[in-house]
Fold this protein.
Amino acid sequence: MSWRFAWLSEVPERAAQLAEWHVAEWAPLIPGFNVPDMLAEFATHDGGEKIPTTLVALDGEDLLGSVSLLENDHDDIRAYSPWLASLFVRPQSRGSGLGVELVRRCEDIAQRLGIARLYLYTSGQEPFYRRLGWQDVASVSLRGVQASVMGIAPRALGH
Ligand SMILES: CC(C)(COP(=O)(O)OP(=O)(O)OC[C@H]1O[C@@H](n2cnc3c(N)ncnc32)[C@H](O)[C@@H]1OP(=O)(O)O)[C@@H](O)C(=O)NCCC(=O)NCCS
């Protein structure tokens, strides 16, 4: 599979598909999460010069996945910032290293923007991130679902 990467702001016609994937994946964890709000949020994401931003992976014109860098990711977790958020690879493209590549690229963006410490939350993907050097920071309950806040230290950036 050949990948190319672009800012979502460069391929805005892909935003609707991405919003549908994200809402289907995370609506159970995020109260009121819906496609129109996601699209309005995406419209504020720029080309990697500041937070918030979203990077997408494509194969030709086909959208494969994405990762975002956000100031706040969940209304119920405000003690940490900024966030690697919304890491997503479409099901038929998983297991080929794209998820890892998107995480690394998001870390690189954060480093370039001078971010000292980067966080994420996950419910179930902790082993995936631990393998990439992320550490457990806190355990939280989101609508009764247990989730982990994880962080990566500045020294771990720039791998
Ligand atoms: C998590 C996700 C992004 C991974 O994408 P992917 O493209 O399949 O990931 P990769 O192919 O880069 O995986 C790299 C390695 O991690 C492993 N891996 C994937 N998910 C894992 C998990 N949950 N726990 C441990 N290892 C995992 C893969 O087996 C692979 O190992 P290998 O290199 O030894 O074969 C993808 O499964 C996804 O979009 N899931 C739904 C959304 C989601 O859960 N996002 C994260 C929310 S915090």
The mean pLDDT is 92. The first strand starts at residue 4 and ends at 7.
